[in-house]
Design goal:
The chain has about 350 residues and is of the alpha/beta class. It has two domains: about 200 residues, Isopropylmalate Dehydrogenase, CATH 3.40.718.10; about 120 residues, Response regulator (Rossmann fold, 3-Layer(aba) Sandwich). About 40% of the residues lie in helices and about 20% in strands. It is built from twelve helices and 14 strands. A ten-stranded mixed sheet has the order 2-1-3-12-11-4-5-10-8-9, sandwiched between helices. The protein has a two-stranded antiparallel ribbon with strand order 6-7. Helix 1 packs across helix 10. The longest helix is centred in the N-terminal third of the chain and has 18 residues. The mean pLDDT is about 95. The protein binds 3-isopropylmalic acid (IPM) and magnesium ion (MG). It catalyses: (2R,3S)-3-isopropylmalate + NAD(+) = 4-methyl-2-oxopentanoate + CO2 + NADH. Pathway: Amino-acid biosynthesis; L-leucine biosynthesis; L-leucine from 3-methyl-2-oxobutanoate: step 3/4. Belongs to the isocitrate and isopropylmalate dehydrogenases family. LeuB type 1 subfamily.
Length: about 350
């Protein structure tokens, strides 16, 4: 049975890195006889430029009809000053996440041993690092209403957002986190701010409740400020971390840097049936867009996650991950992970090297 993959390159470096991931997907598609059909769509600023909206109906329909989605990145200075905030590129991404109910965001931070020197932390602190951040992706302060910027009676303006989580939203992400922990080292750290925020008092309570169904997983709780500190102090204490949308956004960037570069981190955003959208954790990096120097590995590894989680093609996923490890062994490095003695390569050369390592 043929499976449809929707490719959404997006903005900035998005098209450059996605092009390399598509080459890799085409190779495994043939090699493993996967029967994948790839189709492209527009999202973000590039969609706005053509259709006047960052999430055209056509893209949403294609996304709904697809078996999985691979996305590059969205956003850029060109669209930063759009008067109507609903038309900003980021709204395209957020619209896809919420429209497809992709509430479970998995962000693995794994240090490739070859890159221990690229981390800004000492090798002994990060070597062997393997953390999974489970981020709630369709709720919390990102989506809470009311929200906006209003003018008060005294003429001063005020910005406001709403931090809200329902019990069911907390319960379903908790299950994803406990199940992920069961497949790993069975340690789950839930990150909240229960000393200040009621939302996370409830979050903590529900996590305790759900933990009764997973007696083999050891649950702990940590305030987000401490978690940020612990991530850079002693990151190897963590196995799986689960947290809300905004804390997860912030902590996953910090965790990414432990691994040497955010250019290495893939992610999966899954719905309740494991249909998903896959994207690198990094943004559209407008400062380096068009220069051919971006690291395509996070996107290539996202394609591997897609094969593993949504398409059930484990052998093909393994092959891609091994190929990535092989090119790192060969000393090939894009600028973000470059260190002395290594060979600096372009986005395209890195993609081609992964393709070569696959055959
Ligand atoms: C991420 C990004 C997005 C987010 C932006 C681009 C809206 O930072 O995926 O982490 O905040 O979720
Ligand atoms: Mg982010």
């Amino acid at each position: 049975m043929s499976k449809n993959v929707l490719i959404l390159p997006g903005d900035g470096i998005g098209p450059e890195i996605v092009a390399e991931a598509v080459k890799v997907l085409n190779v495994v598609n043939d090699k493993f006889d996967l029967g994948l059909t790839l189709e492209e769509g527009l999202v973000g600023g590039s969609a706005y430029d053509v259709h006047g909206t960052p999430l055209p109906e056509e893209t949403m329909n294609k996304a709904k009809a697809s078996d999985a989605i691979l996305l590059g990145a969205v956003g850029g200075p060109k669209w930063d000053n759009l008067e109507d905030r609903e038309l900003r590129p980021e709204k395209g991404l957020l619209g896809l996440r919420s429209g497809l109910e992709l509430f479970g965001n998995l962000r693995p931070a794994i240090l490739y041993p070859q890159l221990a020197d690229a981390s800004s932390l000492k090798p002994e602190i990060v070597s062997g690092l393997d953390i999974l951040i489970v981020r709630e992706l369709t709720g919390g302060i990102y989506f809470g209403k009311p929200r906006g910027i209003r003018t008060l009676e005294n003429g001063e303006r005020e910005g406001y957002n709403t931090y809200v989580y329902s019990e069911s939203e907390i319960r379903r992400i908790a299950k994803v986190a406990f199940e992920s922990a069961q497949k790993r080292n069975k340690k789950l750290c839930s990150v909240d701010k229960a000393n200040v925020l009621e939302v996370t008092v409830l979050w903590r309570e529900i996590l305790e409740e759900v933990s009764k169904d997973y007696p083999d997983v050891e649950l702990s709780h940590m305030y987000v400020d401490n978690a940020a500190m612990q991530l850079v102090r002693a990151p190897k204490q963590f196995d799986v971390m689960v947290t809300g949308n905004m804390f997860g956004d912030i902590l996953s960037d910090a965790a990414a840097m432990l691994t040497g570069s955010i250019g290495m981190l893939p992610s999966a955003s899954l719905d309740k049936d494991n249909k998903g959208m896959y994207e690198p954790c990094h943004g559209s990096a407008p400062d380096i867009a068009g220069q051919g120097i971006a690291n395509p590995l996070a996107t290539i590894l996202s394609a591997a996650m897609m094969l593993r989680y949504s398409l059930n093609e484990v052998a093909a996923a393994d092959a891609i991950e091994e190929a990535v490890s092989k090119v790192l062994d060969q000393g090939l490095r894009t600028a973000d992970i470059f260190s002395d003695g290594m060979k600096k390569v372009s986005t395209e050369e890195m993609g081609e090297a992964v393709v070569a390592a696959l055959s």
